[in-house]
Specification:
With about 200 residues, this protein is α+β, with helices and mostly antiparallel strands. The chain folds into 2 domains: about 5-30 and about 120-200, no CATH class; about 65-115, no CATH class. It contains 3 helices and 13 strands, in the order ββββββββββββαβαα. The protein has helices spanning about 150-160, 180-185, 190-200; strands at about 5, 15-20, 30-35, 45-50, 55-60, 65-70, 80-85, 95, 105, 110-115, 135-140, 140-145, 165. The strands form 5 sheets. The chain has a 4-stranded antiparallel beta sheet, with no helix packed on it. The protein has a 3-stranded antiparallel beta sheet with strand order 7-6-10, with no helix packed on it. The radius of gyration is 25 Å and the shape is elongated.
């Protein structure tokens, strides 16, 4: 009988590299942890995404913009409000039409920044750029997922073990193993999960 002892690892123990699907070319890419060059203490880190196939790169959360304002029309002198659709770039000027007299003119708008929201497709995403995780599979109505190969191997050791021992000395209820969903812990799903893990490792 195989034995597993909880090493008190956390999910954050594996977020140094998260394998994801590139939003541009859909190939396997990664979100990696790097030291922040702008940090003065030399200890702060940031997450960076770069696809090795198409070279698409992200260093911060993708933002979009809305241009808006409350001007007075220069023809009929009535006040009105305008608000643009979501824009990818900040416009210096925004052309709009007065709703009272249909006079068109350009204004220097105020800008509201919003974070780009991904479509809710039920898939697991990384928490920095909302990119779809590469390793994920539906199992009995649940999503079984992993960040990288090291994460997969740790989960494999847990799943295949007939004897699972918990380490209660440190963070008993906060470790990765303690927070695994019930379908991963269930013996009836063991064979199915191990087949998925084996395929991921190929």
């Amino acid at each position: 009988m195989k034995r597993f002892q909880d090493e008190n690892k956390f999910l954050g123990s594996y977020d140094y590299e998260i394998l994801v699907k590139c939003p541009k070319c859909e190939s396997k890419s990664s979100v990696k942890r790097q030291f922040d060059k702008d940090c003065k203490c030399g200890k702060c880190t940031i997450q960076v995404f770069e696809c090795k196939k198409c070279f698409h790169k992200l260093e911060e959360l993708v933002s979009q913009y809305v241009a808006y304002g409350k001007p007075y029309c220069n023809k009929c002198f009535k006040k009105f409000e305008f608000e643009s659709q979501v824009l990818k770039e900040i416009p210096e000027k925004y052309k709009t039409k007065c709703p009272h007299c249909n006079f068109q003119e350009e204004w220097k708008p105020k800008i509201r920044e919003i974070l780009q929201k991904p479509k809710d497709d039920g898939l697991k995403k990384d928490r920095w750029f909302n990119l779809t995780l590469w390793f994920q599979k539906e199992v009995s109505g649940n999503i079984f997922w992993a960040y990288n190969v090291d994460h997969i191997q740790y989960l494999e050791r847990y799943i295949e073990a007939g004897l699972r021992e918990r380490n209660s000395k440190i963070n008993f209820s906060a470790s990765l193993v303690a927070r695994l969903p019930k379908f991963v812990k269930a013996a009836k799903n063991r064979e199915k999960l191990l087949k998925i893990v084996e395929k991921w490792k190929e």
